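User: Sequence in, structure out. Go.
Assistant: Echoing your sequence, followed by the structure tokens.
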Amino acid sequence: MHQPPHPETYRDALRAFLREDWGTQDWTTAAVPDRPMTARVVAKADLVLAGLPMAVEVFRISDPALVIRASTRDGQRVSKGAELFTVEGSSHGILLAERVMLNLLQRLSGTATLTRQFVDAVEGTGARILDTRKTTPGLKLLEKYAVRCGGGVNHRLTLGDGVLLKENHLAAAGGVRAAVEAARRVAPNLVKIEVEAENLGQLKACLELPEVDGVLLDNMSLEQLREAVALRDRSGRRLFLEASGNLTLDRARAVAETGVDFLSVGALTHSAPAADLSLRMD
């Protein structure tokens, strides 16, 4: 079961999305009779569902009297042609919510579907799939929830969840050691420190610093990744290693088989194609 964010964390955003879509008046909906109808949301392709609670909330905001009956759940693999849920009630209430609901459900299910493809690609290696902060402003919590629905793991939900010293931080601080020591002074003791390494020399510097909990191996070749894992293992340190950069589905398994602990994939949230869904009213 994938625990979704509490509705209070996204309800205002959904109201804003509906206001943006409605504008001042929906002349099209106003032109047709408002009468009791049933709508069915159907998958038009194989997918992994994500965003059902958000879809339900959109309908409730549009018309609290609408009745939603779900036959699927988030995180479930759904086959083409499957009915996801039904909505019963005012035709106007359904029509006013339709586009925003579908946009969200298609986007989040697209992220979950792509995530599951990456998770399947590395199955059996011990590596796990991470998301990144390359999310859509305003949709971060929902997109990261969709990653969990697809079997992935969230990196940081916010900047306060951990320290990640990337190349610009290292440049500003004057190097790996200075940046790590500064981070340990300001961050709470339970906050982990991760450092981005663009070469094995930077990894070796991290291995000498007990404050470092993990290293992000950025755009390294398979040979470099294997050597990085060997260096970590010989050191006796229990650092986690995260591979990042150019992680396509075709390359994912080979990267995972180098022995890294995580693969971070920005495409999960910035480039996942929308899942194909439709709503049909009876």
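User: And one key feature?
Assistant: Residues 91-121 form the longest helix (31 residues).
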